[in-house]
Amino acid sequence: MAEILHETVHYTGHVQGVGFRHAVLQVAREFEVAGYVQNLADGRVRLEAEGRAGALEEFLAAVGERMHGHIRKVERSAARRAPQFSGFVIR
């Protein structure tokens, strides 16, 4: 199986209770990415996404543009691995 790029992204700011997860889901439908987005108990939002490097980078840039007024900090970590997700969902 071909390896693809996987990113774990944590968003900090006013990211819960503002439609953040639903906005990410809408943006994900515009790109060939898979994964999930979820609220965390500490007030952050976690995004797990995988896809080809170009599509993934464009997707994350689009999320940043769409939700820029709510995001104060972004923490990203990347790895190459076999695909683990099918589709994109809210958890």
How many helices? 2
- CATH architecture verdict: 2-Layer Sandwich
What is the class in the CATH system? Alpha Beta
Beta-strand content bin: 35-45%
Q: Write down how many β-strands occur, each being a DSSP E stretch of 2 or more residues.
A: 5
CATH fold call: Alpha-Beta Plaits
Shape: globular
Helix content: 25-40%
Strand count, sense and barrel status of the largest sheet are: 5 strands, mixed
Extract low-pLDDT stretches: none
The whole-angstrom Rg is 12 Å
Number of domains: 1
Calculate the terminal CA-CA distance, rounded to whole Å.
Answer: 26 Å
Supply the helix-strand structural class.
alpha+beta
> Strand sequence of the main sheet, in spatial order?
4-1-3-2-5
What is the residue-averaged pLDDT? Answer: 95
Would you list the SSEs in sequence order as H and E?
A: EHEEHEE
